[in-house]
TrEMBL record:
Organism from which the protein derives: Streptomyces aureus
Protein name as it appears in the record: ABC transporter ATP-binding protein
Coiled-coil ranges from the UniProt annotation: none
GO molecular function, one term: ATP binding
Residue ranges of every copy of the ABC transporter domain listed in the record: 4-248
Location relative to the cell: Cell membrane
Length: 333
């Protein structure tokens, strides 16, 4: 049994935006899954859905099996316990997530007192251990958030996420607000904690390079769907889906000066999730779209060993007559 098994997850916001569509994914203990995609592709919605943190009125269907139990059908009391002890989220921008008027030790202690039913002395001891675990002196428990640097605050957020010993950490752009040096330190810290404690990790980022460096597997999302999935370094180095290729080409590579000076962006924007294009939702931006892509939306299918992509061009499914149409379009574009 996987630590987390998400099956056919669909999320539609009250206004009709289909932010997550038919997502399947799984994470085992000790496994690090990266979720990549441009802004608006549904990554944060997916993270929030996993712990039922979406606004009231949002329609969610499918299954979210955490340790075999479906989070979507749990009673609220159980969901609240699962949020700390089963899986917890580290958000970007720790300053906004921490309460400015409380000492950080008290903030970390709160879930321990509430969900672990610890005594005040037991919670204090655990807070000291957690701070040391994330590389902060235990005495920093007495500090207020504004007395810490951005990197230290993000370490506090990680300590807080670990407070009730969850099996899964969901890190949503955990280093986006930090400078490059601190970003690297925080990423190494997360990696180390995950491997020391055999945790599962879902790391969300628009930055494919960061994800390929940190994670074992990578899922690329576009318009609410996973369009490509496989071992992280392979997806980054040799994406199969045209969107994965474009996303990967947008990042300069070490040792490849050409890519450094000419990273290729992808023209256009992801579609409005309340008015999605027909067929493959990527077809309006796709440089190799076929006529059939306007009407057909391919399922994820085997692209190579242990890799899958949702594109008519993978798995030998391309119709040669249709390919002529694509060629004509790309030469006139
Ligand atoms: N509360 C909401 N109500 C309606 N639509 C929403 C809501 N939150 C997000 N959306 C829409 O759902 C889509 C997916 O948003 P989401 O924030 O999940 O994407 P993302 O990939 O995480 O982007 P970013 O990296 O910018 O956070 C977007 O089109 C967004 O406008």
């Amino acid at each position: 049994m996987s630590l987390l098994d998400v099956r056919n997850l669909e999320v539609t916001y009250a206004g009709g935006a289909r932010a997550v569509r038919g997502v399947n994914l799984s994470v085992d203990a000790g496994q690090k899954l990266g979720i990549a995609g441009e802004s608006g592709c549904g990554k944060s919605t997916l993270a929030l859905a996993l712990l039922r943190l979406l606004p009231a009125g949002t329609k969610v269907s499918g299954e979210i099996l955490l340790n075999g139990e479906d989070v979507l059908t749990m009673k609220w009391g159980q969901v609240r316990a699962v949020r700390w002890a089963g899986a917890s989220i580290v958000f970007q921008g720790a300053m906004h997530s921490l309460n400015a008027v409380h000492r950080i030790g008290d903030q970390i202690a709160e879930p321990i007192l509430l969900h672990k039913k610890a005594t005040p002395a037991g919670a204090k001891k655990k807070v000291a251990e957690l701070l040391e675990h994330v590389g902060l002196p235990a005495a920093r428990a007495d500090a207020y958030p504004h007395e810490l640097s951005g990197g230290q605050r993000q370490r506090v957020m990680i300590a807080m996420a670990l407070a009730c010993d969850p099996g899964l950490i969901i890190a949503d752009e955990p280093t986006t607000a930090l400078d490059v040096m601190i970003q690297a330190q925080i990423l190494r810290l997360i990696e180390q904690l995950v491997s020391d404690q055999d945790l599962g990790l879902i790391m969300i980022s628009h930055d494919l390079a960061v994800l390929s460096d940190t994670c074992d597997r990578l899922a690329v999302m576009y318009a609410g769907r996973v369009v490509e999935e496989g071992p992280a370094s392979e997806v980054y180095e040799n994406a199969q889906h045209p969107y994965g290729k474009a996303l990967s080409a947008a990042f300069p590579r070490i040792g490849d000066p050409a890519s450094r000076f000419a990273p290729r962006g992808l023209p256009g924007d992801p579609p409005d999730p309340s008015a999605l294009p027909t067929g493959c939702t990527f077809h309006p931006r796709c440089p190799v779209a076929l006529d059939s892509c306007i009407t057909e939306d391919p399922e994820l299918r085997a692209a190579a060993t242990d890799r899958r992509a949702a594109c008519v061009h993978v798995g030998g499914a391309t119709d040669p007559d249709d390919a002529a149409g694509a060629e004509a379009r790309s030469t006139t574009a």
